[in-house]
Amino acid sequence: MNLSNTITPKSDQLNADDLLTGPRTIKITGVESGSAEQPVTIRYQGDDGRPYKPGKGMRRVLVSMWGGNGDAYIGRRLTLYCDKTITFGADTTGGIRISHASDIPGPVEIALTVKRGKRKPFRVEPLAPEKVAEIRPLDELIAAGDAIAAQSLDALKAWWVKLAEGERVVLGGSSGERLTAWKTAAQGKAAA
């Protein structure tokens, strides 16, 4: 029996405790505004409704690596890990840090505040390029999309984010007519 599945915290977001068994590489599917307390929500493939909500330090790292346009992050990847030395007030609570990122030409180093008036260098290494997926024929992709759209909007969204980037491009992209038609067809269908 694998006990790691039994220690997942009950939460609406990815937590440092989720990474106690080791780092996780995520592929970003969306960046949204959050609350005043947690202003950025990063959706990723397989997040099961538990997105990554980076703290201020990791938001500074993201902006320094990739710029301020969250839409440009879609399709990029991050390796996240639990840093057990992170403190909150006087308590050592642990937290999520970024160790590697795609789409950077080399290591990125930024000085992060660790305590009031004290900064420490933080380094992110480049992630190896993702293995290029083979693009399926257009007629096969259209048939699959038609079948998925007949199921539900949730099924269509899940299928779309799992496609290789090249397949989404061949299908017309996120704002293309084909995806719009599938969304319309899937509206109101109950998830199985």
Describe the structure.
This protein has helices at residues 56-66, 138-149, 153-162, 165-170, 177-186, and strands at 24-33, 40-44, 77-83, 87-88, 91-92, 95-101, 108-115, 118-126. The protein contains five helices and eight strands, in the order ββαββββββαααα. By secondary structure, the chain is an alpha+beta fold. 26% of the residues lie in helices and 26% in strands. The strands form two sheets. Strands 2-1-3-6-8-7 form a six-stranded mixed sheet, covered by helices on one side.
Task: Provide keyphrases for this structure.
192 residues, alpha+beta, six-stranded mixed beta sheet, two-stranded antiparallel sheet, 5 helices, 8 strands, 26% helix
Outline of the structure:
Helices cover 26% and strands 26% of the residues. It has five helices and eight strands.
Q: How many runs of DSSP E, i.e. beta strands?
A: 8
- Strand percentage: 25-35%
Average residue pLDDT: 87
How are strands sequenced across the largest beta sheet? 2-1-3-6-8-7
User: Per the principal axes of the C-alpha atoms, what is the gross shape?
Assistant: elongated
**Low-pLDDT segments, ≥5 res:** none
DSSP summary: helix tally: 5
Percent helix, as a range, is 25-40%
Radius of gyration: 19 Å
Largest sheet: 6 strands, mixed
Distance between the termini: 29 Å
Order of helices and strands: EEHEEEEEEHHHH
Structural class: alpha+beta
